[in-house]
Amino acid sequence: MKKLFTLLGFSAIFVIVLAGCGPTAHIETSNNANFDQYRSFAWAAPKGDHKESLVEERIKDAISYELQRSRGWKEDNRNPDVLLSYDILTERSSRLQSDPMYSWGGFRTFYNPYYRRFYNVYYPSMLMGYDTYQVPTNEGTIAITMVDTKTEKTILQGWATDEVNSRRLSSSEVDRIVAAIFKKWDSQERYGERAYSRSDGRFDRRLYPARRY
Questions:
Q1: CATH of domain 2-207
Q2: What residues does each domain of the chain span?
Q3: Confidence band for 203, pLDDT divided at 50, 70 and 90
Q4: What is the pTM of this model?
Q5: What are the DSSP calls for the chain, one per residue?
């Protein structure tokens, strides 16, 4: 019995931890976009004399890898079908942390006057509820924008947000966030879903970070 309640306690903690894991991704696609016609991509040139950091290079590598792996697109700097750009934002945030609270558990000793001896009764601890509080965190968001080279119309915007260790994203955090965007894209196409931020089908620029590279 004691082992059973202990396992239930650990299970509750495990479920709470899983609930807060994994990036949250969103995808918006144009009504007129036919992604089957696209075969190649290139990166849009940044404004001014901008030197890429290691994090920025890692983001481009991760996006290029996902496009080649899941879409079969190839990078073509001469005559690409799609131009890519991305945004990155890290900011302080917070999340709800819930810790299980249990009643007292243990043994109590009683005396049996009929047999003149003592005996123990085990009282298992019971789950009484959860102590919920705010934990300060850092959140990292990566957004991807795809533009049709010929029409110069935006055909896709996707972004994902995840909890990160610091304001500087690590390689593993970049890979995880970018992979979540493409997983969401694949899922929406598989089930015929399309998400729009406005009733007229246009993209709402307020929904993702404004810092572009």
A1: 3.30.160.670
A2: 2-207
A3: very low
A4: 0.66
A5: -HHHHHHHHHHHHHHHHHHT-S-EEEEEE-TT--GGG--EEEEPPPSSS-PPPHHHHHHHHHHHHHIIIII--EE-SSS-SEEEEEEEEEEEEEEEEEEEEE---EEEEEEETTTTEEEEEEE---EEEEEEEEEEEEEEEEEEEEEETTT--EEEEEEEEEEESSSS--HHHHHHHHHHHHHHHHHHHHTT----SSTTS---GGGS-S-B-
Q: Worst-scoring range by mean pLDDT, 79-88, 115-124, 153-162?
A: 115-124
Least confident span in 99-108, 134-143, 144-153, 168-177 = 99-108
